[in-house]
Structure formats: structure tokens, C-alpha cells
């Protein structure tokens, strides 16, 4: 695995690049790999604020989950077409789930695209760009199976202090609303030793928080014949010195076993946070979705997690308006939301995913009905989220300072970060210097539905190796020589870390 930490050596630069990411954390993680591959090939990231169409290479890492995903892609490609005509050396590449699904269609509808690659061969991007340039024709290469595990590829991490670690790719489930298994293939697990070696390497670079990623993360081990492999992995992460926070997403209720709950509760650096996709509270709808659990099973998991970790923040995904959903079915979802008392929920109005069984099911729900149910669900969850957050008032929490989380921090003289349970906390800026990755101890004084506020003085500030890593990266970026530019002639500092992607895309 090539490290991401510091690419400060002077190189001849081929040009600038921009990666546009859509969809779930898997795509965010893949985009970090795409950026790493391009930088290893001699490209540099286009400065923040670069005008649309001014980067020498624009890569779209697409998602196929939403019904209008293709319209969004072709709209963006259409805007770039005249810009590419004016700049003949510019290249456009399309990868990700929509590229895996549509293949040759992309070049037919947008013949100015230079490269189309799939979810299984992201490592080929630099080669395909060079081949397209030399041959002066589009290169379409879609692998049918995984060529290289993404985490073995170079990476340009967005954060110096937090990192994604992919433990598996693909999914063995057959949910009727989801096209992901068809696009990312059957589940393939990494060896535990390889995962832990990557985590240790990241910690050596200064990373203090990792998130284990999988399309169905707690099914890890099915590919290697060990049903307790995931809980063992969590416990092993607990033994890595310097690793302060471990998270994971997204699990599936079917595979969420008691040994995982025990590992979470007994491993100090595994955070008291769980994202558990519900999708629907109705047994009838869950059966139609081909989800292999029912309401009683789901609520029993929540009960067990709360018994083992009373302070755990539990979030979920919910789809409203699945084909055939009746008012009674929807009320069952509302019942589960009231019983589970999620800290937050990612709610989705059902939209047809082309190529999925649900897209052709009878009983498609009228848009106005779906909208009305969606608004009722959101209102209920907002009320619950606010009430759950109010329980945090008066608590003293260790907040890991984050970059890019608080849009108003500059005007409010605050900083922002994440509590152990991943709640967003805005707090008064301490007098001493605090960097992203450092840890500040604060007392919560106010709660809103989607954030907490600590208005008093910080109780403690702990400078960390992660903060050192952030400082080193920024200093290196500021001092980095531009090299010999063959594209845009100036290079800026890396863009700030974006806010985390939503915890799920309705696929888990």
C-alpha cells in the first residue's frame, strides 16, 4: 500500500485534477484512492475555487442509487462539453456505480468523455487517461470482478487525523430496492492481517480515528469462513497503541450478533455509536424488500445495544413509500422510530433504481402520498433527535476537533468537532492554539436537533499526534514547490475536509 501522508517531493506536473464524488462512503473512500493514483501519476489537485472546466482532468465518481442519477451526470457532462472544446487537452473520466451499470451508453450520450471505468478497476484510471490521450479516442474498460482491493492503491486522504479503512467490498444480499450487489459484486473480504497492517500504518502517520467500511460491514468473515471475524477485528483494533477512536459503517441487522455488541462495549476505543439501517418498520414491507429480519428482531438489537452501552447514539436509514406500502405499514415504521429513539435518521423517499426488482413492482405509491408520509416521519424524528440531544446538556465530553464541520465558526469564534458518539459539537474557541485532531474537553450547555453547543470555557485541551499530523501536512502544502506545470500554473493548499457523507444510501 502506498501511503498518502506527504507527497511533498518536487515532480514534473502533468496538470491539475478534480474528483467529483456522489453517493456513499465507499465512493468517498474510492475517490481518495483516485486522487492518490492521479497524484502518483504526476497530477496535482486543482486549487480550491478553480472555475468549472479549468481543471485538466475532471473525474466523476458516480452513484447509481437514485432514479435521476444519470440525469444529474449527463447534465454535468453537458456543461463541460463546450469548455472541453475550448481546451482540447482537457480530459473527462467517469467511474463508479453508474459507469459500471451504463458502460458504453455514457460515451454514446456524451462522446466527449475520454475514459469510462468501473467499480472493480479504479486502479486503471491513470493508464486509461494516457491511452485516451495517445490514441485520441475514448477508453471504456469495465472489469467484471475486482482487480485490486481499493485499500492497496495509493491514496490522498482528505483528513490528516481520520481515515476510512475498507474491510470488504461487495454484498451478498438481494434487497429488491438495491442495485449495489450487481455493480460491486459479491462480498470479498480482506485478510485481517492486511487490515490491521493498514490501520497501524495510518496510526504511524498520525491518524487517531478510523472508520471500518463495508457494504455490509458486520458480515465480514463470511468470505473467510469465520462468523466472529468482525468482533475479533474490533477487539484487535483496541490493542493498537495510538488509535483513539474506531467506528464502522454500515452493518446489517441480519448479521448483527451478540459478540459484536460485546466487543463494542468491552473495547474502549470502539465508539458508542451505531448506524443500523431499518428501511421499514413493517414486516410486510420488509419481506417485499427482501430484508431478512423483522420489526421484533430489529428492536431486540436496539435493546441489547442500549443495555450494553446506555450512552450509545444509534442512527438509521428509512425508506418511505416503498411499492405496496399502506398507511398501516407506514404507521409501523413510525412505531419503531418512537420505540428506538434514534439520535438521527437518514430518511429517503423511495425512488426507482433502474435494474432492481422493486422498480417494476405493482403498487407504486403516488408522489403526494409519499411526500406527506415523509414529512410526518421527518417531523417525528426531528422531535426525537432534539429530545435525545437535550439529554446531553450538562455532560462533559471529549470532542475531537474537526476541519470544515462548523460553517459559522469564523463569525461565532467557535470551533467544532465530534463527541465520542459522533454528535456534532460547537464549542467556544479556547485561548490556546487548537488544531484539527486535537481533543478538547467541554461541558454541553445547549442542544439543537442536529448539534450540541458548549458555550463555557474549555475544561481541558489535549494536543495530539493527530494534531501534529494536521499541522505537518498544512506546513508541507504551504512550502511545496509547484514543480514544472504543464497545465494550470498555480497550486493552492488542499481543500478543507468536507463534512462526512450521510451514513448510508439506503443500500445497507
Automatic annotation (TrEMBL):
Entry keyword Ligase: no
Keyword Protein transport set for record: no
Record-annotated MTTase N-terminal domain positions: 15-134
Binding site for [4Fe-4S] cluster 2: 171, 175, 178
Enzyme Commission code(s) on record: 2.8.4.3
Gene Ontology CC annotations of this record: cytosol
Major place of residence: cytoplasm
Keywords, comma-separated and alphabetical: 4Fe-4S, Cytoplasm, Iron, Iron-sulfur, Metal-binding, S-adenosyl-L-methionine, Transferase, tRNA processing
Pfam families: Radical_SAM, UPF0004
Positions with a binding annotation for [4Fe-4S] cluster 1: 24, 63, 97
Cofactors, names only: [4Fe-4S] cluster
Compartment(s) of residence: Cytoplasm
Residues annotated as domain Radical SAM core: 157-388
The family this protein is said to belong to: Belongs to the methylthiotransferase family. MiaB subfamily.
Annotated function: Catalyzes the methylthiolation of N6-(dimethylallyl)adenosine (i(6)A), leading to the formation of 2-methylthio-N6-(dimethylallyl)adenosine (ms(2)i(6)A) at position 37 in tRNAs that read codons beginning with uridine.
NCBIfam families in UniProt: miaB-methiolase, MiaB/RimO family radical SAM methylthiotransferase
Subunit structure: Monomer.
Name the UniProt record assigns to this protein: tRNA-2-methylthio-N(6)-dimethylallyladenosine synthase
